Amino acid sequence: MRCNSQFLPSMNSFVDKTESMKTPVMLLLTDDNELEELVADALSEIGAISHLTRDAGEALEIICVANDLDFAVIDFEHGPHGMTLLSTLSTLREDLPLIVITRDDEAHVEALAYTNGATTCLSKQAVATQLKNAIRQVCNSTRAKVLA
């Protein structure tokens, strides 16, 4: 499965309307096609839908207007722009879990990501094996809050 449009269409028509559990909705910010495919694969297993963007400004717009977001996966750039974006997303939506993918597994980069609002931080090298689990955990946490 490949996400090749700017915004994936809502899949609400495919969801059983009698189902009591809300379909998880996420934001994906990346320009990495391989990561995009990994996320699409993970989402297909849990039935989540996604807003996809390759632009930080657009990600901010989505965060501000999409009240249905349950979590976000951010392909984190280590420079000041990436940290500023992450901090801004975290400030705008304190309740939004942020899964951050870093380009390496250096401890200081992970610490910066957590300091700037990341809920979960994964390195690119480990992402294939850990991303599905991280998304499942966030979705389960979100479902638990909805049912409480």
Descriptive account of the structure:
This protein has 148 residues and is of the alpha/beta class. The chain has a single domain, classed as Rossmann fold (3-Layer(aba) Sandwich). It has 5 helices and 5 strands; from the N terminus they run E-H-E-H-E-H-E-H-E-H. It has a 5-stranded parallel β-sheet, sandwiched between helices. The chain starts with 24 loop residues before the first strand and ends with a helix.
Element layout with pairings:
Elements: E1 25-29, H1 33-46, E2 49-53, H2 56-65, E3 71-75, H3 80-92, E4 98-102, H4 107-115, E5 120-123, H5 127-147
Parallel strand pairs: 1-2, 1-3, 3-4, 4-5
Features:
Rossmann fold; five-stranded parallel β-sheet; 148 residues; globular; 5 helices; alpha/beta
What is the tally of helical segments? Answer: 5
Percent of residues in helices: 40-55%
Reported by name, the CATH topology is: Rossmann fold
> What letter string, H or E per element, gives the SSE order?
EHEHEHEHEH
Mean pLDDT: 76
Structural class: alpha/beta
How many distinct folded domains? Answer: 1
Relevant CATH superfamily: Response regulator
Strand order of the largest sheet: 2-1-3-4-5
In what range is the share of β-strand residues? 15-25%
How does the overall form come out from the CA principal axes? Answer: globular
Q: What is the alpha-carbon Rg in Å?
A: 14 Å
- Give the CATH level 1 class: Alpha Beta
Corresponding CATH architecture: 3-Layer(aba) Sandwich
Whole-Å distance between the termini?
Answer: 33 Å
Characterize the main sheet. 5 strands, parallel
